[in-house]
Amino acid sequence: MPSEDTKERINKAVEVGRTILHYGWIPLIIYIGFTRSNPKPELFKLISPLA
Amino acid sequence: MHPFASYVLRSYYKATGWNEDNLYANLTRSSSALLDFTVPHGLHFSVSKSPNALFKTTYAMTAMPSLHGSVGYIFTSCDLDVKSSGNVRFKDMIERFKVYDQPRRPETPEEEWLAGELVRKRDYLLYGRFFLPTGRLDALYSTRLTPTIQASISAISDPPSLRGQKGDMSNVMINLQHDVGKWCSEYTWSAEDEMWGVRVLHNFGKIGGAGAGASDVADDAAARGRGVKRVDEEDGIEGGLKGRVSVGGEFYFSAKERSAGVSTGIRFTTLPDATPPSFQIPTSSPTSPLSSSPLSHARGPPFQPPTTITALFNPMLGHISSAYTARVSPDLALSSRFDFNVYSFESEWAMGVEWWLRRPPTVVEPSSALPSSSSSSTPSSPPSSSSESAPPSLTTIPSPLEVNGVVKARASTNNDVSLMWEGRLRNMLVSLGVVSDLSSRSKPIKSLGLEVAFFSSE
């Protein structure tokens, strides 16, 4: 059984990972969309449907 | 009306050859389209765009009862042919009654060779949607692991400030689907309540090919006469409907909640109609000008009306639900469902209708008929009479009657009546609906809603 200390560290790491995914998921999709698209579109066109 | 993201997801499944209909979860999809359709509530606006074939952007705003919005982004590894709201096939955007094609083994993705080496390309879809002002994130990652296995991870994430509080809806769900045509199994795991689930669907009869021919019918009859029934025999029911049968079941349990559930279901559906849908039938051909009357659309019901009959049984809750849905004419589908609980004797009877509206006929004259001639009809004159009186070379050609709207209505014994119209106005898709409770004199209208969607592609 892991000690209480280890459990706390794991919990903290999971929380940090969740926060990174929460705020990083959409920038990640835009980044992948920007780099994998051929020809490369303007970034603003990717971000806004009104452009 | 399908949200834009849902339309893109369906396009992705179609492009990668995945059959989303062959799932136990979608067993009652045909009747649900008529009986459980979602009526818009409040005001919704959405604007979407696909700047290229791989990337899609969508903004949505809801006003009344509360103002909130969302931004969503979708990336797919394969090119998708996403149309704009002005020229998308209207029926593709509507949840509707449909006799689904016979199940087939999923298509193997095309092999790509690069410098003499086989490059395995695994298709995937990434989706993220951020809600304002709540800060909630919806995320989805879906990928094809092998030609017959598809995995998806979906998540709802509330902002860190809300975590651990009462309203925290955060959850992660992992889903694995294995489809070989005749069988489809699905395994799910949900993090919030640690729930495991298994769903299985089995299709009897042939898969993938054309429907049974006359010789098969004769064989079946002969086999029945001998009292022998093949395991994979396609069952017919009274009235001569010919179709296929699917059975399925679902089992789930939660270690955390110490609860479990089970349900089973059976579905009979007629074979897909061999005649193309009326919108595809050419309304005129040079060889048979006289048959080009727009009245040909109003032909009688086909010999075998497309029909789906489903029954679900949940033995733990004692709930039985049986539904009968049929398209009785090219533009009209009717559905009826009876729910009954064998323990509490509670019951509900629901009826639904789906009626397709077509654009008024516009008569287009061929260029050869343009010379001034008193016999050529004006656009306002009845086309059927003109086609009889005019010589074949001057026959007017009515353009196909395009579907441009649908009216859905449902009523049930719990006093709820819902009415919804969906259609295309200029280049926008519009949905207008009302839910009313006829038993309440003080508040007969429960909700009223309008949804406007616009999307375009470059």
From TrEMBL, chain A:
The chain crosses the membrane at residues 20-37. GO terms for cellular component: mitochondrial outer membrane translocase complex. It comes from the Eukaryota. One of its GO terms (biological process) is protein import into mitochondrial matrix. The lineage of its organism: Eukaryota, Fungi, Dikarya, Basidiomycota, Agaricomycotina. It is found in: Mitochondrion outer membrane. This is Tom7-domain-containing protein. InterPro entries: Tom7. It is a single-pass membrane protein. Belongs to the Tom7 family. It comes from Pholiota conissans. Keywords: Membrane, Mitochondrion, Mitochondrion outer membrane, Protein transport, Transmembrane, Transmembrane helix, Transport.
From TrEMBL, chain B:
It is found in: Mitochondrion outer membrane. GO terms for biological process: establishment of mitochondrion localization; mitochondrial outer membrane translocase complex assembly; mitochondrion-endoplasmic reticulum membrane tethering; phospholipid transport; protein insertion into mitochondrial outer membrane. It is a multi-pass membrane protein. One of its GO terms (cellular component) is SAM complex. It comes from the Eukaryota. Its main location: mitochondrion. Residues 273-307, 366-398 are annotated as: Disordered. Coiled coil: none annotated. InterPro entries: Mdm10. Residues 282-296, 366-395 have a biased composition (Low complexity). Keywords: Membrane, Mitochondrion, Mitochondrion outer membrane, Transmembrane, Transmembrane beta strand. The keyword Mitochondrion applies. Lacks alpha-helical transmembrane segments, suggesting that it resides in the membrane via beta-sheet conformations similar to those predicted for other outer membrane proteins and porin. Component of the ER-mitochondria encounter structure (ERMES) or MDM complex, composed of MMM1, MDM10, MDM12 and MDM34. Associates with the mitochondrial outer membrane sorting assembly machinery SAM(core) complex. Component of the ERMES/MDM complex, which serves as a molecular tether to connect the endoplasmic reticulum and mitochondria. Components of this complex are involved in the control of mitochondrial shape and protein biogenesis and may function in phospholipid exchange. MDM10 is involved in the late assembly steps of the general translocase of the mitochondrial outer membrane (TOM complex). Functions in the TOM40-specific route of the assembly of outer membrane beta-barrel proteins, including the association of TOM40 with the receptor TOM22 and small TOM proteins. Belongs to the MDM10 family. This is Mitochondrial distribution and morphology protein 10. It comes from Pholiota conissans.
